Amino acid sequence: MHEAVTEFLPYADFVKVTDDELEFITGLNDEKEGIKALLRYAARAKLIFVTRGGNGSAVYDREANSADYAAYPADVVDTTGAGDCFIGSIIWHLLNGEAELTVGGTEKAMNFAVRACACVISKKGGAPSMPSREEVEKLK
């Protein structure tokens, strides 16, 4: 594992990585094995979120429970900001009591996040493409 990353993992309540970042950090190209390795370093993390671009996303817990979410269909214009939008959506739901740090407790947040990301990637730019809650909720 890379020291610059692993130095902070023990302090994280949850971790969000892309599939490429997971492989880079752990040196493993199998996602489930990579999650196990990451959790050894992220001793207090309850959840690991993995984004896979057009291949969707997943959430894993320490007991090897997981849930996969398909990417919401969108015409890709620019992926800048998609990861920030994803984790921002999760954090917003957690802070507003609409999610819990369990695989099942993040279902609403994950469904919102994948739709929010579809809004972001269908526009040019990072910050200018961030959708409003109303815009995301129109996508069902």
Automatic annotation (TrEMBL):
<dbReference type="InterPro" id="IPR011611">
    <property type="entry name" value="PfkB_dom"/>
</dbReference>
<dbReference type="InterPro" id="IPR050306">
    <property type="entry name" value="PfkB_Carbo_kinase"/>
</dbReference>
<dbReference type="GO" id="GO:0005524">
    <property type="term" value="F:ATP binding"/>
</dbReference>
<feature type="domain" description="Carbohydrate kinase PfkB">
    <location>
        <begin position="3"/>
        <end position="132"/>
    </location>
</feature>
<keyword id="KW-0067">ATP-binding</keyword>
<keyword id="KW-0808">Transferase</keyword>
<dbReference type="Pfam" id="PF00294">
    <property type="entry name" value="PfkB"/>
</dbReference>
<keyword id="KW-0418">Kinase</keyword>
<protein>
    <recommendedName>
        <fullName>Carbohydrate kinase PfkB domain-containing protein</fullName>
    </recommendedName>
</protein>
<dbReference type="InterPro" id="IPR029056">
    <property type="entry name" value="Ribokinase-like"/>
</dbReference>
<comment type="similarity">
    <text>Belongs to the carbohydrate kinase PfkB family.</text>
</comment>
<keyword id="KW-0547">Nucleotide-binding</keyword>
<dbReference type="GO" id="GO:0016301">
    <property type="term" value="F:kinase activity"/>
</dbReference>
